[in-house]
Amino acid sequence: MTTVVRPGLNASSPAAVPAGHRRRRRAGHWRPRNVGQWVVLGACTLLLVYFAFPVYVIISTALKGPGATGGSLGLPESIDMSGFRLAWGQLKGNLWNSVQIAVPATIISCFLGALNGFVLAKTPFRGAKLLFILMMVGMFIPFQAVIIPLFIFLKTLGLQGTLVGIIAVHVIYGLPFATLIMRNYYVTIPDGIVEAATVDGCGLISTFFRVMLPLSIPGFVVAGIFQFTNIWNDFLFGLIVTSQATWPVTVRLNNLLGDTSVDYGTLMAGALMVAAPTVLVYIGLGRYFIGGLTSGSVK
Amino acid sequence: MAPSIVLTFVFVYGFIGFSGFISLSQWKRPTRQDLTLRSPFGETYVEMFKEQRFQADMRNVVVFTVLFLILTVAGGLVMALLVHHLVIAKGLFRTVFLLPYALSFIVTGVAFRWIFNPSSGINVWLGDLGIDNPPKWSTDTTVAFAISHPSGDGFWQIDLGIPLALLPIIIAAAWQLSGFAMAMYLAGLAGIPAEELEASSMDGASWFQQLRHIILPQLWPVTVTCLILLLHTSLKIFDLVVAMSGSGPGFVTDVPGIYVYDMMGRANRYDKGTAAAIVLLLTACVFVVPYLIRVYRKEGKSA
Fold first, then answer.
1. What CATH number was assigned to the domain covering residues A91-296?
2. CA distance to B81, B196, B219, per residue, from B201 (Å)
């Protein structure tokens, strides 16, 4: 791959696909026309069934309700929503914890990532690239390598088990990724804009706040989606850094698994609740998601 | 920006250093801090590598990583080639294939635990089909293709082979992440110049020749990126295994991620927990650092 792909280009490419698609439609190729195309469509449909199957299992088991036994994967005979009520009762406090963790941590890490990305992309100083690479390593480490010192550190500060503690942890370890996305985004913004601001007498800081931030919305959307998804789906930090009162919902859902009094109907309803926010973000902002995925990876 | 960079460096490099130091010290119980070096030097690592559980963990993470990478990257490539050649509903297929990527490993784990539950899920269907001894899935203790068996006082305390119990977890992980590989490959495919493909088909190249000589070589950098990113996921795997099976009977599904967690909590062995984490980190670094340096060099050239 050619070094780092730019989010600007990628954000436009998913839009380009439907455009090309429309062109083909207009030309009348709106359905497969030869054997090869039918084979491709058939294979994709089989894959679709495979990929949708676990999702179907979650939904159908959830709809069977807590009374469902026998463990069959078939369709529910009647719809019973009481599993959702039970799951909501078990999880609502933790869902709220997750919101309280993921929203501020996403906003703060994206903002700091923008600041870092701006400096790395627009002010070439000695060692900027080395610094960037050293930061990227922070993205690639297995977090197990820091978890014990982190636990000791937060305990010493009295932050272990608090929401502030886990938010800080997500901000710090989310920063490399946010920086990467924002840096790659700022690389696509012409240097002329920064130079013009400097000529007009803007310092580095005021250039960032007055000129760059208003231009950063597309970068923020991509970085925000990924930070939110990663933080919401986190389990390891949530397990170690929080206490029972501040458990994020992923930890609570996993605990329900070990609870013999909780049946799979309720569990699946709970799984749907845990999955809903990130799936909604993915469906709503899918094209940024795909664009960011390919731009966010160092190549 | 300086404070946040300093913070990241302390929290990443400082803490790694601290982990390394704990792993060489005598600090076991969390409440009884003892940072005097253990002697002989590095004895904790020796002790750990001789342990049956840690040997099983290393075997499992290697088997898991190899099979998971093959399945996910090959699956992603096939899916990308198919979706790329679709003439209708491209967006729909792409969206559904990538959807699992937005899920938490815990959610995936809950779903697949049910699907591969020995007494429910697909075993009910297998039973309906008349199969009397359906697979035990994640509770199976069979180690297939074992090349060594534990022999009392030898170094190896485990069967070196492929624990069958890992297969459902590998399938679940591949289900979640092959859409990610597909998205990467789709971006790569979009970057292959159409003229090159047209020119080769004018020269009479078949689709397979094009794939072999034009498409696959140009997708190689995407493959490397996917392998590195997925390797990182697979080495630190924790939540999916915890949700699907835990350590399993005889540690057949235990992984270093769970080992670190148990050593830090239940087992009261900070030294062993950090030692396992350092082994994990070094393994990741062997692959990730050369990759990042290569990217850095390339960037340096193009800038």
1. 1.10.3720.10
2. 17, 9, 19
